[in-house]
Write a structure and sequence with these properties.
The complex is a heterotrimer of chains A (250), B (290) and C (325). By secondary structure, chain A is an alpha/beta fold. Chain A has a single domain (2-249), classed as 3-Layer(aba) Sandwich (Rossmann fold), CATH 3.40.50. Chain A has helices at residues 42-50, 72-78, 95-103, 110-124, 139-151, 169-184, 196-202, 220-224, 227-234, 238-249; strands at residues 2-13, 16-27, 31-35, 57-62, 65-66, 80-82, 157-161, 188-192, 205-210, 213-218. Chain B is mainly α. Chain B has a domain at 19-219. Chain B has 10 helices and 2 strands. Chain B has helices spanning 4-35, 42-60, 68-91, 95-117, 142-164, 166-176, 178-183, 188-210, 220-235, 240-280; strands spanning 132-135, 138-141. Chain C has one domain: ABC transporter involved in vitamin B12 uptake, BtuC, CATH 1.10.3470. Chain C is built from 14 helices and 2 strands, in the order H-H-H-H-H-E-H-H-H-H-E-H-H-H-H-H. The chains are: A alpha/beta (250), B mainly alpha (290), C mainly alpha (325). Chains B and C meet through helix 3, helix 4, helix 9 and helix 10 of B and helix 4, helix 5, helix 11 and helix 13 of C.
């Protein structure tokens, strides 16, 4: 069953085509990734999926319902939650209070939301910092908080925008099992990621976006060997040069 | 309803007033365009300038137009010091703080004036206060015509500075990209203060042109504040052309509105425009989309 | 819960003052201090908790005041009934202004400007319309009785304003311990992040405007009962708007007791100034304005903020609006 279906979605800003005729299907229960060089339009695509931006054309279907252009808070209520590339904590509130805002989507009572927040904090490894002001957390902590807050909404589909960016190798190692754990608990995850180690390790299926268009998709292995993908990252003609080099060495 | 000649006179009046409004709005839009702050103290600063011109006339017998070379630098200095010494220090990087600080400054200035000068309205008398000039069927007070011409001259000078001098280039650079400008060696704090100074200097000039045809009391500033904001928002925050066009438009609306609705309700017309623009076209006529 | 226990204690302590003393001076001081608290608390709901700074809160104050006066003078209604009407009317104005402003995405300075503009519009209309008494204003006929909300001694007024302040305190405490309050503060701190996790910013901000407006309107109605007179300048002029916001900011926005402390401090300051310099026009406002500037410069989190600092003993580094720590 496809939890999210994006069909021929396009969006321009003035003369710039940020996203052009992109279609993809996210199967329920999967862990998939969206990659591509900087400026490819990945975050824009997330914004289009979650309702922060209205597509110029195309449709977005979530859990069988057409949600094209529907307001983000309504999408979150239906189970589609996104995080932000540049983390956005509620800086003046504690970690617990931050997560509780997300938990309130499922719990009306304050005490229930606060307990649920504790449980989520435990899952992502923030239990020790529950009463710290969010503004005091390190980058890694804030990333976890971003994840925790989204998780607290009990989503069906989680759109993670570069949740590993800015983390050092040890912190990345610590995060991988957390992300994997999400899927085993029943959450479908689509992540935008630059950290290739994570993509190779975690993703079942990868889409590659370049200059607003989908240029390739497949398993991580397939995609990283794809000529078009290599050229998108490293420049035109690179694939040919690489092959020539390999032949020389051989 | 009204005789064409009365309407004509009203429009003409509106245009001459509008020129001075435009000058006031220019300072405000410059400050917004570069520093991205809404200077709530603009009206109060104009009031301070008006009192300056008033006392120069009453105590030192200096004609308001002669006072230009004194008022403009003085107001510039005031603006520079206020920005560098108070506003910059209070902002702590957050816009809300600047909002509050300029509000606080306006309150302090207005009420200090109330304290020292009471709420009496004062005006000056000069040889030409009562002179009028005939334009077509209308009679326009000479001071208003001088204000019109003067405002246009000052606006042109300001535009020239912005376009052709190094300072102008620095200001435009900072407005577009603060960090890049800093990396190019531009002292951003200094530029900010210069901008604020120029904004208040415009008020100094406006006061010199305004007083002969107008009056001063401590609350006159707040009367101008909302009008100035309306013009800036209507013309487009940060747009020079917008401030000029907006100034004339609002001047005429106020004059003609006052003619048909009476002075008080005519003012409501301006606020209605203000609210409508904020709601439906916040970028104004010439501004960039925020 | 702790907050409500503290409120109960506060009510007990302050409520017993009129039982302990007859002094007109003391009771007047307590009454006006509580009045200032109410204004600051009302502003705090929208400004401190909601993060929407209104510079024209007198809009709601004046509406409440005029409705309280007009309903008695023109319609002969009982003041206790008109108090409810006044609060409903100012809440409705809040609904109107809020819907207009937030529907069109006004934030920050633009929102502040719009509230200022609306307050001015109302002032001019009140000045021009005979129904409101135009420039002359409205006077409440003197008729002392509890049923007519005109008390023989200050004690009655003290208890009345204490009741209103308690209402405001309870509303604020509710904001601190409810889902709605959590949503409101989330919208204040980061609207986009809040939207992503299920918060409807428009409804949340709108409701805060309604609550804030209603409470402010109660302040206006109270003013009319005490001074038995209202005119456009008193109702919609900047003085009340400033008093409300400076009180909340000085004391600490977004806290329960901050506005109470701030309003009290300002009130004391104003009294001291009056005693030192006499009843000079504008001196109060000079003090308020200066305090505002100084607080923003040196104590941006207000007096309540440093209190928190002492308790928590942490060095909080807030990221500025670009996300840099």
């Amino acid at each position: 069953m496809n939890l999210l279906e994006v069909s021929h979605v396009s969006r321009s800003f003035g003369g710039l085509r940020a996203v052009h005729d992109v279609s993809l299907r996210v199967p329920a229960g999967s862990l998939t990734a969206l990659i591509g060089p900087n400026g490819a339009g990945k975050t824009t695509l997330f914004a289009l999926m979650s309702g922060f931006l209205l597509p110029d054309s195309g449709r977005v279907n979530f859990d069988g319902v057409d949600i094209t252009g529907r307001a983000p808070h309504l999408n979150a209520a239906s189970g589609l939650t996104r995080t932000f590339q540049i983390v956005q904590p509620f800086a003046s509130q504690t970690v617990r209070e931050n997560i509780a805002v997300g938990a309130h989507l499922a719990h009306a009572k304050r005490s229930d939301a606060l307990s649920a927040a504790e449980a989520v904090a435990q899952r992502v490894g923030l239990y020790g910092q529950l009463d710290q002001p969010a503004g005091e957390l390190t980058v890694a902590g804030r990333k976890r908080l971003e994840l925790a807050r989204a998780l607290a909404t009990q989503p069906k589909l989680l759109l993670l925008d570069e949740v590993l960016a800015g983390l050092n190798p040890q912190e990345i190692q610590d995060m991988l099992p957390v992300v994997r754990g999400l899927v085993s608990s029943g959450v479908t995850v689509l992540m935008i990621e630059h950290v290739m180690q994570a993509v190779m390790n975690l993703a079942e299926h990868v889409w590659v976006l370049s200059q607003g268009q989908l240029i390739a998709q497949g398993t991580p292995r397939e995609v990283t060997q794809n000529q078009l993908v290599i050229e998108a990252y490293l420049g035109h003609g690179t694939a040919a040069r690489l092959r020539a080099l390999q032949q020389e060495i051989a | 309803m009204f005789d064409v000649s009365i309407l004509f006179a009203s429009v003409l009046n509106g245009i001459t007033t509008g020129a001075v409004y435009a000058l006031i709005a220019l300072g405000l839009t410059l400050i917004y365009g570069v520093l991205h702050i809404i200077n709530f103290a603009h009206g109060a600063s104009l009031m301070v300038a008006l009192y300056g011109v008033y006392f120069l006339k009453e105590k030192l017998s200096i004609d308001p137009y002669m006072a230009l070379p004194l008022m403009v630098p003085a107001m510039f200095a005031l603006g520079y010091l206020l920005q560098r010494g108070v506003i910059n220090r209070a902002s702590h990087g957050k816009d809300e703080n600047i909002l509050l600080v300029t509000l606080g400054l306006s309150i302090v200035l207005e009420n200090l004036a109330l304290l020292f000068f009471k709420s009496d309205t004062r005006n000056i008398e000069t040889a030409y206060t009562l002179t009028t000039v005939n334009i077509g069927p209308a009679m326009i007070a000479l001071p208003k015509l001088v204000a019109f011409a003067g405002a246009l001259v000052v606006s042109s000078v300001l535009l020239a500075v912005m376009l052709y001098t190094d300072l102008g280039r620095a200001i435009r650079a900072v407005a577009k990209e603060k960090h890049g400008a800093r990396l190019m060696g531009i002292d951003v704090d200094h530029v900010y203060a210069m901008c604020f100074g120029i904004g208040l200097a415009c008020l100094g000039a406006a006061a010199c042109f305004l007083l002969p045809a107008y009056y001063v009391n401590p609350l006159v500033g707040s009367g101008f504040v909302l009008v100035a904001f309306t013009i800036v928002v209507l013309g487009g925050m940060g747009s020079f052309v917008g401030a000029l066009v907006g100034g004339f438009l609002i001047g005429v609306v106020e004059s003609v509105g006052g003619l048909y609705l009476g002075e008080s309700l005519g003012q409501v017309g301006i606020f209605a425009i203000f609210i409508a623009v904020l709601l439906f076209r916040p970028q104004g006529l010439f501004g960039a989309r925020a | 819960m702790k907050d409500f226990r503290a409120i109960a204690l506060f009510v007990l302590l302050v409520g017993s003052i009129p039982l302990l003393t007859d002094s007109g001076v003391v009771l007047n001081f307590v009454m006006m201090a509580l009045y200032a608290c109410l204004l600051a608390q009302a502003w705090n709901v929208l400004g401190g908790f909601g993060g929407q700074f209104s510079f024209g809160h007198a809009l709601f104050f004046g509406t409440g005041a005029y409705v309280q006066a007009m309903a008695q003078v023109h319609l002969g209604l009982n003041p206790w009934a008109t108090l409810v009407l006044a609060m409903a009317a100012s809440a409705a104005v809040g609904l109107f202004v809020g819907t207009l402003s937030f529907r069109y995405g006004l934030k920050g300075s633009y929102f502040a400007l719009v509230t200022l503009a609306f307050a001015e519009v109302f002032r001019i209309v009140a000045l021009s319309v005979p129904f409101t008494g135009a420039g002359v204003g409205l006077m409440l006929p003197l008729r002392e009785s509890v049923g007519n909300m005109q008390f023989a001694s200050r004690a009655g007024y003290v208890w009345l304003i204490l009741g209103l302040v308690t209402l405001a305190l309870c509303v604020t405490a509710g904001l601190r311990h409810s889902r709605y309050g959590a949503y409101l503060q989330a919208v204040r701190d980061n609207e986009d992040a809040a939207r992503a996790i299920g918060v409807n910013p428009f409804l949340v901000k709108l409701w805060a405007t309604v609550l804030s407006g209603g409470l402010m309107g109660a302040g206006g109605a109270f003013y009319v009962q005490v001074f038995q007179y209202i005119d456009p300048a008193l109702a919609f002029g900047p003085h009340t708007s400033v008093e409300a916001l400076v009180g909340a900011i000085v004391g600490g926005m977004g806290t329960l007791w901050g506005p109470v402390v701030g309003a009290l401090a300002l009130h004391v300051l104003a009294d001291v100034t009056r005693n030192l310099f006499g009843q000079l026009p504008g001196i109060n406002m000079v003090v308020y304005g200066s305090v505002l500037v100084l607080i923003v410069m040196f104590l941006p989190r207000g007096v309540g903020g440093i209190g928190l600092g002492w308790f928590k003993r942490t060095k909080v580094s807030m990221p500025d609006k670009k996300g840099r720590a």
